[in-house]
Amino acid sequence: MGWEALEQWGTDVRRVEPFTRGVANDVWSVRVDGRLAVGRLGSRSDDDLAWETELLVHLDRAGLSVPVPVPTMDGRLFVDGLVVMSYVEGRAPETTDDWRRVAEVLREVHRLTAEWPQRPGWRSSTDLLHAESGTKVDLREMPAEAVARCRAAWARLAGRATCVVHGDPNNVGNVLISGDRVTLIDWDEAHVDVPELDLVLPDNAAGLDEHAYDVACQASAAWEAAVCWDDDYSVKRLAEVRAI
């Protein structure tokens, strides 16, 4: 259906202008009943979008600042790959104190989602110690030596508790700060995994000790290498994963 689905949000609704951020989706500012919102159109399955929108509603009800799904006239949170969410204003984090606040919010996300089910079709980093693929990851596309290095990094996380991780919080475009509020946006990479993957922040703002920071950095670099394989960025991230 494409953007025609926007009519499900009412008669007074229109697209305004495209956002520059957003790779996997077509993202626009929209107006719904005169209010500014964000429309995101992609190819995610209904099960995937149900998982994401239910997560955002849960975090909002728990008091965290997130883009809240705006329901259609008949109460649906998405239609044919289209989600409309509340518009959030703010600036990117700039200082170590800003990033410490981001770490606090991430830890609250982790606490609130300790029993959350896995995103449909996804695998965690420790699942990939044995599985070969899951959503954006296909280890069969990587050289055997690269897979071995990634799995060695993830093996250091084995046995740890899991929760929802945002998946890309150290990207300044995914964090908005205003007043006393920190808002995490773009939950496209969110899934259930070990929380350490979210805590590799600038200046080690999460305050991990030396060993924990090394484990997290190696696992995070391995994850991003596997997810993005094989573009220039993934090759760069793989170079950060120690040989075995």
TrEMBL record:
| One Pfam family in the UniProt entry | APH
InterPro entries tied to this protein: Aminoglycoside_PTrfase, Kinase-like_dom_sf
| Domain (Aminoglycoside phosphotransferase): residue spans on this chain | 16-200
Superkingdom of the source species: Bacteria
Q: What is this protein called?
A: Phosphotransferase enzyme family protein
